[in-house]
Write a structure and sequence with these properties.
By secondary structure, the protein is mainly alpha-helical. It has 7 helices and 2 strands.
Length: 132
């Protein structure tokens, strides 16, 4: 997983990672391939940009709620890369309006669990050649 060495393979292991918290250094590794800023990340994981800067400066961990939202985002981003196998294509898909998502850009939907699930469903349809 982006930024997480020895990333868990199953849901129960992810619970432990989220409960422990995620090092603030990870969010830089998550946004770098996307070309996002901390402000962009802030909107998606609902953590004030100032708080992200503070975590980064202090080298502290994102705790349960923050970590959970960062992990959700990271898992979706990795799935996008699996489907497109190319960062420029993955970035373009995340930023572009998608008919199957009601014309929304996938990255606009990643701030909620429901939105992330819809994006993952759309990726599954794309991967299997099912047009929505």
């Amino acid at each position: 997983m982006l930024g997480l060495r020895n990333a868990p393979r199953d849901g129960l292991a992810w619970v432990a990672v989220i409960r422990e918290g995620v090092a603030a250094s990870v969010f830089e590794q998550v946004i770098a391939p996307l070309g996002w800023t901390l402000g962009d990340l802030s909107k998606v994981i609902a953590v004030p940009e100032r708080t992200l800067h503070r975590h980064k400066s202090a080298g502290t961990r994102l705790m349960k709620g923050e970590a959970e939202r960062l992990v959700r985002l990271t898992r979706v981003i990795e799935r996008v890369f699996e489907v497109f196998e190319d960062w420029p294509k993955a970035r373009a898909w995340l930023a572009g309006p998608i008919h199957g998502l009601g014309g929304a850009a996938p990255q606009e939907l990643l701030d909620t669990d429901a939105g992330a699930a819809v994006v993952l469903d759309e990726l599954g349809r794309l991967e299997h050649g099912i047009h929505s």
